[in-house]
Every structure is written in structure tokens, then in C-alpha cells.
């Protein structure tokens, strides 16, 4: 009985709040225009495009079917027929240069695509060509014929604040152009393991599969970020979406247009987060930053006077909260750029300037290991990829290309031995013997026999 009385007592309070809220709403006379995002969207939506891709994938076969002895024993044709299937995907893109026909999108939308098609807001369908891509930041640029295109104005994403209203425009689930609205929920999200370099805008504007590569715009219709990913524990949208900030996207775009690739530089430090345990161990007053745990010999960091145990708290006037911050800042700089570093040496605050250097990653021509690897360039994968040997380049006229291998494939085992780098691959490969390799390609894995 008490609970029922309590419920009845709350009803007038609820009605009173509703009444007060209703009275506070502005009143609009009949015929007066209601506030709407429609005028802004009418200007912005023609600059957001739908992207569809098709990719021919080699269907993995049992390695026994590629064994000549096995095929002879069962009276199978001497050469196995290569089977392929076509994979199609959908995404979105943003026109950022109408004069040159340049469209921004996510790398994962067009990765390894044999054909890229773009559908404009007015219904036109155009074939696109890849200009350049940065897989680690998940950014790509494609080009379409520049004819009566609309481009989005670019905003300074550094001016975004938590609570700013934003609108996501894209092509979710292939439904066609769709708009959702929300606010900026957080800034500078990193350490999520979604991309190699992360500095995400978090928003509750609904982002779904197919929105990747679409535009996140402010209420002026300016491009503030590129929709990239969602946090979906149960496979559905839970109001946590992520976009790459416009400033980061445009910096990558300039490098891709200038060089056709990203020439990331090297500072030469390994860092870790500054934990409460490390604060106590080092007896520090500062509680934020990235602790240098290792300095590479002869690196720009060593030349700048940095030492293990130093704590980087700012780079180029941008605060460094943890190791992800310093990695993102350095990762977006080019070889030869200067970086101003504020750091603590003990409890003494210091300042230095380092010049970003050229990263040294050993490469090896594949035919130095095995004649069937002729036409490839191999290297050990970096720490953000699955451990193995990366096939960086493949000559399209080579036999290895005809077998179905592609740049970006990672060799994770050879002759049934797990390999993690070039040195381990050298140990298990015989120059004149047969070679059974296990390839990892994205989420797919398959075996290839080379004889």
C-alpha cells in the first residue's frame, strides 16, 4: 500500500515538470518556418557519395590438392584449377576537391578492390581510381571524373568541443544516403585497437555498417571528421561511434597527394604509460605523460638528448597524456620535420627539439630466399601487424602474382614452422626445396605450395 501511495504522489510532480517544460518551449505562429537542419543538409549531402567495390578472391584449397604426388596418385589434373569468388562491399565517401574529383574514404572500404564504383547524390554512377592509401590510419583517396561536383568545406577539428552538435551522413546497410544527428561525446579517443594511429572523435550520432568513409559535419555543414567505426558489443549500434578528425585526415591527404604514400618518420623511442606505480617508483610530481623505456642507438631521440626514464609531457605544444598520444603525434609527421618536446628528467622540466628521421626496416628481395619468390620484396611486419613476414611488393608479371598472392599478405609460417620475422624465415627455407607457406590476409588464412 505504501508503494502505491508513493507512486500516486509522484504523478503530480511528473505532470508538473512536463507542464513546465512544455511552457518553456518556443511557440511558432502558423506559417512560420520551424527550425530545421534541412537547408544545411541540402548543401552538404551532394558532397557525400556511396561507394561500392568488387574484389576477386582466390578460394583457399586444401594443401594436399596442390601436392603433385597427391594429384598423380588420385589421377587429378597436373595443375589444380584456381577457383575465385567475387566479394562485394559498400561504404561511403566525401568529395573534398570538386576541381580534381578527389574523394576521401576509409582504406578498409576500398582495400584490395579490383573495381571501385561511386554513386553521386544525383544518381550518376562513376568509376573511380585509387590515388593513395594509408592503411595504418585507415584513410584513402580515390579520384572520379570532375564534372559538376559539390565539395564539403573543411573545418578546423581542433576547435571541436564535447557537446557540439554533429550530423553523420553516409550509406548505412546500402539503404542509400541517410542522415543521423547527435553530439560530440568525447575527443582524443585512442588505444582502442581499431587502427594503427588513433585520435578519434566519439559521437552518439548513429553510425552503422556502410557509414564508413562518410562525413561527420557540424551545423554549418563543414567537414569535421570521417566516420570510421562503431563500438557494437552485441552487433548493433549502442550510440558509440568514432570518426577520424578532419585535421588528421587532411594531413594524410596532403602527404598522399604529394608522395603517393605516407612517409612516416622515426623518433627512435619506445614509451609506456605513466602508471601510479611508476609515479611512486620514480618519486615524480607529474602524473601524466609517456615514459621512455628505450632509446634506439643513433636515433633522433638520442641526438636530442633524451634518455630512458625521461617522461614526455608535450610535443609541439600538444599535451601528451600517455604513450598513444606521442605515437599519434610522431606518426603524422614527415621525415625531416622538427618536433619540440617538453619532458621531465627526474623532477626537472626540460625542453629539446628533435628532427624526425627515416625509419630503417630491413627489406629482402624474395628470390634471395627462394626462386619461386622472385618478383617480391619482403620485410618483417611492424608491431601493429600480426607477426610474420610482410610481402611489401609483387611484380604483376611474376609467378607469385599468378598464384594469387598480393602486396600486404603476411607469411606466418613456412614449411610448418611458425615464423615471426625475416631471420626466422631464412632459417626454414631451402633455396632449391619446396616451400609450403601459410598466408594471412586480413581475417582470412590459406596455404600455398611453391615448388
- The number of strands is 25
Share of helical residues: 10-25%
Shape: globular
N/C terminus separation: 85 Å
Major sheet details: 7 strands, antiparallel
- Uncertain spans: 1-25
Average the pLDDT over all residues and give the rounded result. Answer: 80
> How many whole angstroms does the radius of gyration measure?
27 Å
- Structural class call reads alpha+beta
The helix tally amounts to 10
Strand residues, percent: 25-35%
Write the layout of secondary structure elements.
Layout (H helix, E strand, L loop, with lengths): L1 H23 L13 H7 L3 E11 L9 H6 L10 E14 L4 E4 L1 H4 L4 E5 L5 E10 L4 E5 L21 E6 L7 E12 L10 E4 L11 E3 L5 E8 L10 E5 H14 L9 E5 L2 H6 L8 E6 L4 H4 L7 E5 L2 E2 L3 H9 L6 E8 L2 E8 L7 E3 L10 E5 L8 E6 L4 H5 L6 E5 L2 E2 L3 H7 L6 E7 L2 E7 L1
Characterise the protein shown here:
With 451 residues, the chain is of the alpha+beta class. The protein is built from 10 helices and 25 strands. Strands 19, 20, 21, 22, 23, 24 and 25 form a 7-stranded antiparallel beta sheet that branches. A 6-stranded antiparallel β-barrel has the order 1-2-3-6-5-4.
Key structural traits:
single chain, 10 helices, globular, alpha+beta, 6-stranded antiparallel barrel, 451 residues, 35% strand, 7-stranded antiparallel sheet, disordered N terminus
Condensed summary:
The protein has ten helices and 25 strands. The model is unreliable at 1-25 (pLDDT under 50). It has helices at 2-24, 38-44, 68-73, 107-110, 246-259, 276-281, 300-303, 323-331, 399-403, 422-428, and strands at 48-58, 84-97, 102-105, 115-119, 125-134, 139-143, 165-170, 178-189, 200-203, 215-217, 223-230, 241-245, 269-273, 290-295, 311-315, 318-319, 338-345, 348-355, 363-365, 376-380, 389-394, 410-414, 417-418, 435-441, 444-450.
Amino acid at each position: 500500500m505504501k508503494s502505491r501511495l508513493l507512486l500516486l504522489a509522484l504523478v503530480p510532480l511528473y505532470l508538473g515538470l512536463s507542464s513546465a517544460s512544455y511552457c518553456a518551449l518556443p511557440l511558432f505562429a502558423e506559417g512560420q518556418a520551424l527550425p530545421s537542419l534541412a537547408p544545411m543538409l541540402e548543401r552538404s549531402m551532394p558532397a557525400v557519395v556511396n561507394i561500392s567495390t568488387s574484389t576477386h578472391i582466390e578460394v583457399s584449397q586444401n594443401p594436399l590438392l596442390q601436392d603433385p604426388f597427391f594429384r598423380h596418385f588420385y589421377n587429378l589434373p597436373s595443375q589444380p584449377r584456381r577457383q575465385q569468388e567475387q566479394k562485394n562491399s559498400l561504404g561511403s565517401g566525401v568529395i573534398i576537391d570538386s576541381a580534381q574529383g578527389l574523394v576521401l574514404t576509409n582504406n578498409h572500404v576500398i582495400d584490395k578492390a579490383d573495381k571501385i564504383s561511386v554513386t553521386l547524390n544525383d544518381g550518376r554512377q562513376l568509376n573511380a581510381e585509387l590515388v593513395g592509401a594509408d592503411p595504418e590510419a585507415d584513410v584513402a583517396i580515390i579520384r572520379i571524373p570532375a564534372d559538376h561536383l559539390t565539395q564539403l568545406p573543411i573545418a578546423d577539428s581542433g576547435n571541436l568541443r564535447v557537446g557540439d552538435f554533429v550530423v553523420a551522413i553516409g550509406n548505412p546497410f546500402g539503404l542509400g544516403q541517410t542522415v543521423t544527428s547527435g553530439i560530440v561525446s568525447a575527443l582524443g579517443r585512442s588505444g582502442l585497437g581499431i587502427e594503427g594511429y588513433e585520435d578519434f572523435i566519439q559521437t552518439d550520432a548513429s553510425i552503422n555498417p556502410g557509414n564508413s568513409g562518410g562525413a561527420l559535419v557540424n551545423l554549418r555543414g563543414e567537414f569535421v571528421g570521417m566516420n570510421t567505426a562503431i563500438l557494437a558489443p552485441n552487433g548493433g549500434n549502442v550510440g558509440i561511434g568514432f570518426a577520424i578528425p578532419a585535421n588528421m585526415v587532411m594531413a594524410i591527404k596532403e602527404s598522399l597527394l604529394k608522395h603517393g604514400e605516407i612517409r612516416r618518420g622515426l623518433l627512435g623511442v619506445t614509451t609506456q604509460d605513466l602508471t601510479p606505480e611508476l609515479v611512486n617508483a620514480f618519486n615524480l610530481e607529474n602524473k601524466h605523460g609517456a615514459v621512455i623505456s628505450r632509446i634506439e642507438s643513433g636515433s633522433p631521440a638520442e641526438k636530442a638528448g633524451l634518455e630512458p626514464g625521461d617522461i614526455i609531457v608535450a610535443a609541439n605544444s600538444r599535451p601528451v597524456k600517455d604513450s598513444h598520444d606521442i605515437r599519434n603525434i610522431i606518426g603524422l609527421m614527415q621525415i625531416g620535420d622538427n618536433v619540440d618536446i617538453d619532458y621531465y628528467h627526474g623532477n626537472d622540466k626540460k625542453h629539446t627539439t628533435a628532427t624526425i628521421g627515416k625509419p630503417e626496416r630491413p627489406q629482402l628481395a624474395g628470390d634471395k630466399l627462394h626462386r619461386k619468390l622472385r618478383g617480391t620484396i619482403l620485410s618483417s611486419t611492424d608491431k601493429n601487424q600480426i607477426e610474420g613476414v610482410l610481402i611489401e611488393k609483387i611484380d604483376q608479371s611474376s609467378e607469385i602474382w599468378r598464384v594469387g598472392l598480393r602486396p600486404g599478405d603476411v607469411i606466418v609460417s613456412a614449411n610448418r614452422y611458425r615464423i615471426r620475422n625475416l631471420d626466422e624465415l631464412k632459417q626454414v627455407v631451402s633455396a632449391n626445396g619446396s616451400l609450403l607457406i601459410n598466408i594471412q590476409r586480413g581475417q582470412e588464412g590459406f596455404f600455398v605450395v611453391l615448388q
